[in-house]
Task: structure prediction
Amino acid sequence: MARYIGPKSRIARKFGEPIFGPDKVLAKKNYPPGQHGSGRHKKSSEYGIQLREKQKAKYTYGVLERHFRLLFERAQGAKGITGEVLLQLLESRLDNVVFRLGLSPTRDGARQLVGHRHILVDGEVLNIPSYQVKPGQIVSVREKDKSMAVISEALNGFNHSKYPWMEWDRNSMSGKFLHLPERSDIPENIKEQLIVELYSK
Result:
């Protein structure tokens, strides 16, 4: 699937948040990019605020419009609060689960691990980043790839207890997706209700 490959610091500055991970440029220039980025800005419309929130969610999880809309439609048809279900679906993506397990410091890196066939789901190689991991499934590193430096460095000192919907086994280098996360446990600063309002127009 196509994904955003442009300048990430520019996007992070646009939203004023390190949505791709720690950003040195954002730390120095915490204002929008462009010639007038640090100047005054006109107030955004209601639509503009809603659109901005959707864009932030898409960039955060590395999802383009078509797939994002499909996930929203699934969330609409599911039981529960649409916005929360949408975030749960995004959190259940295989690339995001790999990221949450600490196997990569970024979602882009996690997506690459999946695409290059380094990741197993229930013991089977799976190279589809958008695969929806289900409660009870086990995500692990392929045996011959467990010594990869990029994975070892990412795991070094990583705190697995901060994501209570997953359980990590250090010895087998595998994580169990216990259940869908509660909204209060998802750390992303996304106002999902604004996205629901945008698509409901």
